[in-house]
């Protein structure tokens, strides 16, 4: 009576808060208990969702599933942004060849092989499924989930090369899958597919991907400019760093380019400029808050996944499900090993055989698969419900079984893990030095290799971009001095705190 | 064609992003240009909204106004939370007597006097307005806006006592106004008001306020507990610190207690416990992000205010508007001066006459007034549209005229401003010491004054609450040592950086 806000109005935010609080509680319980050492966090969220879904279904008859708009407009962008922003910049570009090989060629091969296997077994399914539908399903089921992968790999501290390859692959692979998925979803509506349709699909794939990169780079400029001129108003800087990449995603989507490629590009490339424009405080805030958001969105997707397991609309096809699970696991091994062989021919630091096994085994499925399968058009893909069921089975299998056995496997195979190195100023000096020497050698022998173009790009960045986009563009020397000071100060701070035994 | 996300779906987030981006751009332009020295930021946002509103009205015929649900459920809570969280804890409780005097007694007197003046002039208005409607209007127009006040006072660096009193008053005054407003809005629906209705209103005011405080304290425990047990999962901590206070607000509203009192209490009281439970990184993130959110929400309200100025539904009553503006300005002086006289009788550090003038003159109106006037029920308050127009006039007057003249006034009156003191460890020691001495003297003379209860409360907090709610409860001695270390480390860091001239 007293308040004008009646229950009805408070409804929406209360429900959202309820689920978010449940997620927080589930996470706290998970990390407080000892089970965290055996199974990944995502499996706990799925289990929690499972119970909640069962209760809601049993007591209220509610049937909950993730709405595609919710996933693509609100949950996916923060996950993609954080992934791009937190990618180790230098390592990523050093390994970009191998990563692209895995992510583009590897994913395409994965899709082809999985769809082939599914097609082979098609006489045994409950309903006949056209090949184009199987291809579409193979595409979405090939999306390796960066967050599921990351949460597992961060705990076991594998060596940096393995880490960047697995993470980089899972990240770009999403973009490839989503773009291919949309092309195929369009093709699935066509009754008779001719070669020109395939050409069109390939063409549109390239257009959509390139368009995403270009719009992403455009928004890098906007973000850098906006942060450069807002140095005096610290309080809006975190907003800029979250808002503009999201605008980039929406801009891409509204001109039908790839939003996910756009936002990943924007997040990845804006980081060096933001590092120069943001204060220590806003830098921390932006990074930590991105992590929090991405983590929360991911948790919401896993929760929905669990909630939907008890949905009434599930259609079980045991053979289809078993074939899919086996195909997903096997095909990754079949694809990764020859591709690594190719990659190793050009690599200086080779990828070892045990590392290859981990790359193949680490292909956990997650949020993206589930989000994509929900967006299938029921009128075009008649077996959508069965595909949803199978996707849930694949995700649950990879997250629970593979996710919890990968750490023991890493130990068993004696995969080289990353030891913590002391931060040395000499590594920073040597990094720059080796780049220069390599470029020098290339110049002497008259070859224009990767190092030549890297140097040209870096000169362009340093002479033209940085002075315009950053408040304090610094020479390599000045950056080194700054680094020394920071490390010195941090060291003396630690020593002081130690002497006082705080 | 390629993407399943068609324009229609991207609509909502695109519009939101568009307005947010406009706000960012407006702020950047404002701070880059020199006008920032003369007028407050809020006036720029109103002006920007004015132009945008004019264009939208002229070209599209759109009529934009702030929906009360948007204001009360999404924009107000972040503003209130940040205000509570960033209130200087120690200073606030040292001045709580004076602040409560201004906020509770002062606001009530303000409402009575303004409604009296409005009633006196009622024969001259275009329509006759019943006294209860005038009282309701006087209530909402008495809400001093903490953010408008803060943004002005932070720039001019007034002395700490003046600052805490103005800020504390504007903060608690909102709570008082909102609670009174809801009681009166209920009374306005009753045809014949009898004394029991007034008693009921007073009773409900007390219930609603106390209920808010109790629920707020309850959520302080929840937040402290949740952060204590999530030390290992840093990434959810910022979420907890934003989510649980918001839950507190919703919980209060859904049991018809005061959400704003609840969330301010929660924000204010949870801070000491969070300081013990959060890492340096999450502490910074929580604080900066709260500021960003609150700042953004405030900007949105000012934008809406500007947008609505060109609305077609405005009804001008020149006499009513002029009487309201004059009453708002004058009554604050009439109320502040005798109340300060009362307060000064018990204060050790007196509030000077020039300070009183600034407190009275600094009563800027803003978001809360506008939000409240929009929630009026058109069926009960027949002159709602005219009141909206008048409220906009009052806000524009106080923000533009008072907001831009207060800085020159502070200079003219030679108000004592705050000089930046070097951080000394002795001030920390002396603060604790003086509290102990005061309590000791009170014990000797056998009197149980404020210091006695403060000591008891602090002992209860230290012995019972802190060990349960914090991961590292520390004695005063240990805290001092930690403080010394931090200050030492920071100093040596600065010296190092200076020697390298970075």
TrEMBL record, chains A, B:
Keywords: Antiport, Ion transport, Membrane, Sodium, Sodium transport, Transmembrane, Transmembrane helix, Transport
A single MF term (Gene Ontology): sodium:proton antiporter activity
Cited InterPro entries: Cation/H_exchanger_CPA1, Cation/H_exchanger_TM, NaH_exchanger
Domain of life: Eukaryota
BP terms from Gene Ontology: potassium ion transmembrane transport; regulation of intracellular pH; sodium ion import across plasma membrane
Membrane-protein topology: Multi-pass membrane protein
Subcellular location: Membrane
Record carries keyword Coiled coil: no
An annotated GO cellular component: plasma membrane
Domain called Cation/H+ exchanger transmembrane: residue spans: 22-411
Pfam families membership: Na_H_Exchanger
Family the UniProt entry places it in: Belongs to the monovalent cation:proton antiporter 1 (CPA1) transporter (TC 2.A.36) family.
Name the UniProt record assigns to this protein: Sodium/hydrogen exchanger
Name of the gene: WBGene00107313
């Amino acid at each position: 009576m007293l308040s004008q806000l009646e229950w009805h109005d408070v409804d929406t935010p209360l429900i959202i808060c309820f689920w978010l609080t449940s997620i927080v509680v589930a996470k706290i319980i998970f990390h407080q208990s000892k089970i965290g050492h055996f199974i990944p966090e995502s499996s706990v969220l799925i289990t929690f969702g499972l119970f909640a879904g069962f209760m809601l279904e049993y007591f209220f008859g509610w049937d909950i599933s993730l709405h595609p708009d919710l996933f693509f407009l609100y949950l996916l962008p923060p996950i993609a942004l954080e992934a791009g922003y937190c990618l180790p910049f230098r390592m990523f570009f050093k390994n970009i060849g191998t990563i692209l090989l895995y992510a583009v060629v590897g994913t395409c091969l994965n899709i082809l092989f999985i769809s082939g296997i599914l097609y082979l077994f098609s006489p045994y399914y409950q309903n006949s499924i056209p090949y184009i539908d199987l291809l579409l399903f193979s595409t979405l089921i090939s999306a390796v989930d960066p967050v599921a992968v990351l949460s597992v790999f961060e705990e076991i501290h594998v060596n940096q090369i393995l880490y960047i390859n697995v993470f980089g692959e899972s990240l770009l692979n999403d973009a490839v899958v989503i773009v291919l998925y949309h092309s195929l979803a369009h093709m699935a509506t066509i009754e008779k597919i001719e070669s020109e349709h395939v050409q069109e699909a390939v063409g549109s794939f390239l257009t959509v991907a390139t368009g995403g990169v270009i719009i992403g780079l455009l928004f890098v400029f906007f973000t850098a400019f906006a942060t450069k001129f807002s140095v005096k108003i610290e309080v809006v800087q975190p907003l800029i760093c979250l808002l503009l990449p999201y605008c980039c995603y929406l801009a891409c989507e509204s001109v039908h380019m790839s939003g996910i490629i756009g936002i990943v590009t924007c997040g990845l490339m804006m980081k060096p400029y933001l590092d120069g424009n943001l204060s220590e405080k806003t830098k921390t805030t932006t990074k930590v808050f991105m992590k929090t958001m991405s983590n929360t969105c991911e948790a919401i997707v896993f929760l929905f996944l669990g909630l939907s397991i008890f949905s009434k609309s599930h259609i079980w096809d045991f053979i289809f499900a078993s074939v899919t699970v086996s195909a997903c696991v096997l095909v990754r091994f079949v694809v990764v090993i020859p591709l690594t062989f190719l990659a190793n021919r050009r690599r200086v630091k080779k990828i070892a055989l045990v590392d290859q096994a981990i790359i193949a085994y680490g292909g956990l499925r997650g949020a993206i698969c589930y989000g994509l399968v929900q967006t299938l058009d029921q009128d075009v893909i008649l077996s959508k419900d069965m595909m949803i069921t199978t996707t849930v089975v694949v995700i649950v299998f990879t997250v629970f079984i593979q996710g919890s056995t990968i750490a023991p496997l890493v130990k068993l195979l004696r995969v080289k893990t990353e030891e913590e190195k002391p931060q040395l100023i000499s590594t920073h000096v040597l990094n720059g030095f080796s780049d220069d020497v390599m470029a020098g050698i290339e110049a002497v022998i008259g070859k224009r290799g990767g190092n030549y173009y890297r140097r040209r790009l870096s000169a362009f960045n340093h002479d033209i971009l940085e002075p315009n986009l950053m408040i304090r563009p610094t020479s390599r020397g000045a950056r080194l001095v700054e680094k020394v000071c920071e490390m010195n100060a941090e060291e003396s701070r630690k020593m002081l705190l130690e002497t006082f035994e705080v």
